[in-house]
Every structure is written in C-alpha cells, then in structure tokens.
Design brief:
- The structure is a single chain.
- This protein has helices at residues 9-17, 90-113; strands at 32-41, 53-62, 67-76, 82-84, 118-120.
- The protein has 133 residues and is α+β, with helices and mostly antiparallel strands.
- Strands 1, 2, 3, 4 and 5 form a five-stranded mixed beta sheet that branches.
- β3 (67-76) and β4 form a beta hairpin.
- The protein is globular.
- The two termini are 13 Å apart.
Length: 133
C-alpha cells in the first residue's frame, strides 16, 4: 500500500517516538527515519559520555510502496558514531538480536495498524536476522 498523502512528517515522528527510546528524531529528515538501540555497555568504568555500546541502528525510508528498512549491528563509540562491527561474544549477540527483533515486531505492528507495508531494502540481500516484514 502506498503512503497516505495526508500523513505529515510530524505525524510519523509522533508515531515512531511512541515506540520508545529508539527514534533519533534530530537525525530524521522528511521521509527518512533513524532508530537505534544501545544494548550492551562495553566500558562501564568510564565517564557516561565516553562509554561505548554494542547495539543496532535501523534506517527507515518512505517509498511509494511503504517503508523500506536497512539495519546494521555494531559498536556505538565514545565519539557518538556507529561502526559496523562483528559481535563476537554470543551473549552480547543474543541480547542485541533479541532487542532488534522486539523493536522490529513493534514497528511492524504499528505500520500494520496504519495499513502501511514494511519491507527490507535490496541492500539487505543477506539479512543477518530473519525480520518478518
């Protein structure tokens, strides 16, 4: 289903913010929304603003068909940037994947309630996780 033309960027931001602390509202532009989650702290013994986290980030882009997503797993570094990195520790990987799947289910439900579709970007040809659309 195509995106409703009467739905503004502000309405989408409000709906997406209701999903919890995932939306990076200041980094969202019309039709493009960024979500992320800092799941596992790497270094709790440093100042909070310098801590690093394992987690995920997801980009959602409005298209004529609905919303297209891409996601990545990696490290949120002490400079406030995401880096795609392999998560080698199995318990960290499990926590990050569980968090991403939970978010994805909530996002899918919310878009379904709005009668909108969610689908992976062609760039996600090799999905790391099976996220139902």
């Amino acid at each position: 289903m195509a995106l409703p033309t009467d739905y503004t960027n502000g309405k989408y931001l409000k709906k997406f913010a209701a999903l919890g602390p995932y939306l990076r509202e200041k980094q969202c532009l019309n039709g493009c929304y960024l979500f992320d989650s800092l799941v596992v702290c790497v270094n709790v013994n440093v100042a909070p603003e310098k801590r690093e986290f394992w987690g995920w980030w997801l980009k959602l882009v409005a298209t004529e068909k609905g919303f297209e997503f891409t996601y990545h797993l990696g490290l949120y570094n002490g400079h406030g940037s995401w880096q795609a990195k392999e998560l080698k520790d199995s318990s960290t990987m499990e926590a990050v994947e569980k968090n991403l799947v939970s978010f994805h289910q909530a996002l899918t439900k919310q878009l379904s309630d709005l009668e909108l579709t969610l689908f992976p970007s062609p760039l996600m040809s090799e999905l790391k996780l099976e996220l139902s659309a």
